[in-house]
Target: TILB protein
Amino acid sequence: FELPSDSFKYLGWCDIKEHGVRGNQLHCPRVREGPSEEELFFRKEEHTLKKRKQVTDTEKWEKRLQENWENCAELNLSFQDLGDLYQVENFKRILRRLIRVEKLWLVDNSLTDISAIRLPRCRELNVNKNHFTSFKQLPKIPQIQHLSLAENNIATLSGISDFRHTPLESLILKRNPCEFQERYRQLVFSNLPNLKILDGIPKLPEDCSPPDVRVFYRMCTIL
Model:
């Protein structure tokens, strides 16, 4: 049986009429667009189409003003279920507008590459549980202080030195293949001398091995 609310379940808050809520007033908005018309027919949910109509240029501009992403300072866009290419493109459109965001969560969105995105004021970024394989696939974040990349697929530390000139203090790489690299912590701290915390553990004396100790790791002793 259909519920009265069924015809609204694929609508974003911007598509609901007669309210003045703006994007910067929401911390966890749903930004994923609904399924295509073909998919709705396949699901036998074509009744939801009655809420859709041709959008005019004026309505597009009004929606842009209502979204107001440019003034968001703290935003959680996690678990958006971006299974289709058009969903990812719409998601990136929103990310490009986050010019003032300082804290951003993008957890579990199946993201693979957002290197074309620039987040000039972002100080805290959480992209746990995505599909990143390299630091080069991350957005430009020149003011980053806290970066969480747990449960991705980053195999090497190549590209990590790009964060050397940022104010990065805390980095989480738990459950990435690079965590099993020999002398993992020493390598991270040698590339990021200003880093204070790695994987929740503060910088330890043994994380700053002197040069002669580092040579020892590359030697083979036969007894």
Q: What stands out?
A: Confidence is low (pLDDT under 50) at residues 211-217.
